[in-house]
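User: Fold this; tokens only.

Assistant: Input:
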Amino acid sequence: MHHDDITIGEEVATLEFTDVDPANMKIVSAVMGDPNPIHYDERAVDRMGHPGLINQGPINMGYGTQAALAVAESPLGIESMEFRFEDNVYEGEDVTAVAEATDTYVEDGQSFADLEVRLEKTDGTVPVTGTATVRTEND
């Protein structure tokens, strides 16, 4: 995104992810060697009182990262990111990753934007919040 097109206080990127797929949770569990049954065992989450399998934090963080990347000048444009996991995302849910500009500045001829990043569920719950600093396009 071009630096001059960013307005502080506005949402500069929104990306929708529909029907969070439990098959992906199972694959990520296997790849990461994550033995926690909340990501792949329907009976275990039912016994725990959850409405479905729980999406991994790294997948949820990936959704937020994609919103930040939509603002960055390139895939290498993320300078820093920090996330907080505040609630669960369950299989079948729809989520939206949002990046809101909190500051823009130029340093040593390079343009930057500071972002507030969040993951929103359709019921208004915000399971992931965070911040990112990205390099932006300039002339």
